[in-house]
Amino acid sequence: MASGAIEVHRHDSALGQWQVALRQPHAALRAHVAQLWHGAGQVSYQRDRILPQARSYLLINLGPPQYMFLPGPPEIRVVFDDIWFSGLYEGPIECAAPQGSVLLGVAFSAGGAASLLPWPQAELANRTGPLQDLLGPRARQLRQRLLETPSVAQRLDLVEDWLLAACISGRNVHPLVHWALARLADSAGRVRAEALARDAGCSRKHLTTLLSRSVGLPPKSLARVLRFQHVLGRLGRQAPDWAQLAADGGYYDQSHLIRDFQQFSGLTPAAFLRSAQPDPGSVVVR
């Protein structure tokens, strides 16, 4: 199998101790899958927030139960102890792993899940839940095989084989979807939906329908997520010139950036800078 080498990152700080193994996917999957990872360890904080990205995820818990919290009132704690799928999101997901974690994940590109998996992405956007609801026994069988496989490299091989053999659906995604996703990514979300539709030679309504069906979110929402991620990538740990950062990121003004920041992280930009980050995609909240 012509998969990439495994890159191992170890973390040991006041936030906890963990190890993450990252690998680029098999060549046949690279147009659809951005990355595979296997993480294990123990954190010292109570909860973190997973920040939205223009990706969907296959998540396989191979360790103690973890928890996802649905906002209330009342707040609802959902147990994650098997295999889940998480669609594209327009807000953060609050999680906890009080007993440690062993997690294997597949990160799909924005249009990757629609190309590989026979599921309606419009129904899965802003949702995270059990994969067995969609795949039945096949999901349980995959997880059981992973539990019986001690090697991280072999676990990643198993998931790749499963994606190649069991999940490639042969579904055709409209070429305009791939084109629009590339334009949005290349511009870091700065291209507007109206300009995108004009350049595509179709109505905004038609383009919105295509992306919503295949990706789960309309172009305007995808652009907002991509702009937010671009700003995150530009942040250090010192307060920047927010007005300049907003202008460079394609926001109308600083207040526009702050509104999006609060929606996507649940924090003001200043509060975000004061918060610890276990990794670039999450922030500690308790």
Automatic annotation (TrEMBL):
InterPro entries listed in its UniProt record? AraC_XylS_family_regulators, DUF6597, HTH_AraC
PROSITE patterns with a match to the protein in the record? HTH_ARAC_FAMILY_2
Q: Which residues form a coiled coil?
A: none
A Pfam family of the record is: DUF6597
An example molecular function term from Gene Ontology annotations? DNA-binding transcription factor activity
Domain HTH araC/xylS-type span(s) in chain numbering:
174-275
Keyword list (alphabetical) reads: DNA-binding, Transcription, Transcription regulation
Q: What is this protein called?
A: AraC-like DNA-binding protein
Organism equals: Tahibacter aquaticus
